[in-house]
Specification:
Length: about 120
Amino acid sequence: MATKALATWALALQFSSPTEPIVDIAVKSVYNWAGCAIGGYGLNPAGISYEANVPFIGAQGSSSIFGTGKYVDVKTAALINGIASHADYYEDTHRGNPIHLSGPVLSALFAVAGWMAPV
């Protein structure tokens, strides 16, 4: 029930709805997550996970593994970016954001965005 209520609320949001402090925290969270994902790919957990998934990736996709120049399917991008963003576990360390959901949410969000609107 709570998930449905949260989803209904989130779908009703307009970009003009969030206040300036919320937008500021969101932007900082994206920068923080992206830096961790890019830096984390060079560490063992993300690299090993990518190599383990290579046989299952299939055709080149349109979703980016941040900082690598590699484009893969949406599920692989979400997985590897999520692992990379947690490799050093520094995402969401800024004190202005009391919740910890950038890793899973932004990893999936950017993977789906790349799939829906490839560049």
